[in-house]
């Protein structure tokens, strides 16, 4: 995105609309105080060759009125996030523009951009399973309301609409660029041909995008289909998309991540995946330069669990996911508490990813936290776990935290159970979740089932235990027994907790709403 002070213009960048080329062209009008967010290294090289200004002021700002800011601006930032980050007078006085594209055409572009054709994923299955991409640009640039842009440049009439802005030479500079192009076949990938093969998908788009279709006068494509294109977009994959929680289009994912509480066997899982799948597999990146870049910092963790997917968190994920190279696995449990699931969906990686929900016997898991004093010093839950004082928690901790460290550890374990249910409920139709436990996965049969869920039939190798706590067995057994007794006294259903949180209008990726009643999200203890 760009805030160009000389033109008094804010560019809100939507997806698959030629936005990067427009951004490069628009940056040529920016002064030293304008805000320009980074784009891909290849596109930055193109911008440098043109001698246009590159990324600047996207982390610290000096506003025209003399005030300074430390807001984080990033690629594909939503209009609402921009509005919250800029001074009110700039939002109100600057012209907000974006680019809009016929949804029938845009979804085809997204299909080829994600490489679904190369993986033999039929077009209709891609759209049906990942229909959230149809509303993605409406989330970035709402069609109506206080965050709606002033001007929508129509992708189909860009020359006319860009020239109507009255900015000298902008169309010439823009039209000479072609960033991120040439992924779509020249023949047989036009909307008329594709939707002749997939009329039900056209019905779905007509329903999902009714508002923008009516506003911009888009029409359902109609034409005689190209027989070769019919074969390309309807060819069956080796196996149909599996049903159930978040069916992924390919049983062998490009990326594997973990949603887990920690002290659940994530170090063991990283080694298991690396040795059995023969792919790069990381537990927790702990090199000096990884903190804040590959591993969320305390600031990132606190921001997400207080404000949701705000500027610093989104900027972290821009860099983190931008460096991924398939195949890759990572069992770092902090990611799932810092917007991993939201980021995978927002960055279009959900179709290529499987997320393993890894659990452990709950009493033993909680005992491990207690034995290590994990909730004694506040910096440990800030960096590695969750804190009961965060605004964006699903469970009200007030009935458990008076019990001290053991109560806080129980609250955290139950909060994570509620978050597993929350993510499956909200994102299960977009992202494939595979569930296992440490106790199951470390057996021959359980490991074989886990391998099969990842698309592999061969016999699994079982690594030895890792990161086991060095505590007296009798002491641990007594503590586990005490925790089991406490858990039996707690009335808790993770599904009910997650659904109640959602039904009250809450989401983890936005700032928390005030709790609506004293019992909202509360754990009942007998």
Automatic annotation (TrEMBL):
Gene3D superfamilies, alphabetized: P-loop containing nucleotide triphosphate hydrolases
Keyword field: Transferase
GO MF annotation terms: transferase activity
Disordered: annotated span: 224-252
InterPro entries, sorted: P-loop_NTPase
Protein name, entry field: Sulfotransferase family protein
Originating species: Phaeobacter porticola
């Amino acid at each position: 995105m760009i805030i160009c002070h000389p033109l008094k213009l804010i560019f809100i960048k939507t997806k698959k609309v030629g936005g990067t080329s427009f951004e490069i062209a628009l940056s040529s009008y920016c002064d030293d105080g304008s805000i320009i967010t980074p784009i891909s290294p290849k596109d930055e090289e193109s911008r440098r060759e043109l001698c246009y200004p590159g990324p600047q002021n996207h982390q610290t700002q000096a506003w025209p009125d003399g005030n300074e800011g430390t807001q984080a601006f990033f690629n594909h930032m939503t209009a609402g996030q921009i509005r919250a980050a800029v001074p009110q007078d700039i939002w109100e006085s600057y012209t907000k523009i974006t680019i809009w594209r016929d949804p029938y055409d845009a979804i085809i572009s997204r299909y080829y951009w994600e490489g679904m054709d190369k993986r033999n994923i039929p077009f209709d299955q891609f759209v049906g399973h990942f229909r959230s991409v149809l509303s993605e640009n409406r989330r970035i640039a709402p069609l109506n309301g206080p965050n709606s842009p002033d001007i929508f440049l129509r992708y189909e009439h860009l020359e006319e609409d860009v020239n109507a802005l009255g900015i000298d030479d902008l169309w010439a500079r823009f039209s000479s660029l072609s960033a991120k192009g040439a992924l779509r076949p020249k023949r047989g990938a036009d909307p008329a041909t594709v939707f002749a093969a997939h009329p039900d998908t056209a019905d779905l788009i007509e329903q999902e995008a009714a508002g923008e279709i009516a506003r911009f006068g888009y029409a359902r494509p109609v034409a005689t289909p190209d027989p070769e294109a019919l074969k390309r977009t309807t060819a069956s994959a080796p196996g149909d998309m599996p049903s159930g929680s978040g069916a992924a289009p390919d049983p062998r994912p490009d990326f594997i991540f973990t949603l887990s509480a920690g002290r659940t066997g994530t170090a063991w899982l990283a080694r298991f995946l690396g040795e059995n799948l023969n792919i790069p597999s990381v537990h927790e990146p702990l090199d000096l330069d990884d903190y804040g870049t590959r591993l969320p910092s305390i600031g990132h963790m606190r921001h997400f669990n207080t404000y949701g997917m705000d500027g610093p968190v989104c900027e972290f994920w821009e860099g983190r996911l931008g460096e991924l190279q398939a195949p890759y696995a990572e069992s770092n449990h902090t990611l799932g508490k810092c917007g991993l699931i939201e980021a995978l969906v927002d960055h279009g990686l959900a179709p290529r990813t499987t997320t393993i929900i890894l659990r452990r016997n709950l009493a033993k898991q909680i005992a491990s936290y207690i034995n290590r004093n994990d909730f004694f010093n506040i910096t440990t839950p800030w960096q590695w776990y969750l804190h009961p004082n965060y605004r964006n928690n699903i469970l009200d901790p007030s009935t458990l935290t008076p019990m001290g460290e053991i109560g806080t550890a129980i609250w955290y374990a139950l909060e994570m159970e509620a978050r597993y249910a929350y993510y499956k409920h909200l994102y299960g139709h977009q992202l494939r979740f595979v569930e296992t436990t440490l106790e199951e996965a470390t057996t021959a049969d359980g490991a074989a089932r886990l391998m099969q869920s990842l698309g592999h039939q061969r016999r699994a190798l079982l690594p030895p235990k890792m990161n086991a706590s060095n505590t007296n067995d009798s002491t641990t057994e007594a503590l586990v027994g005490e925790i089991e007794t406490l858990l039996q006294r707690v009335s808790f259903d993770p599904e009910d907790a997650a659904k109640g949180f959602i039904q009250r209008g809450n989401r983890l990726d936005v700032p928390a709403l005030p709790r609506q009643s004293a019992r909202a999200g509360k754990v009942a203890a007998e």
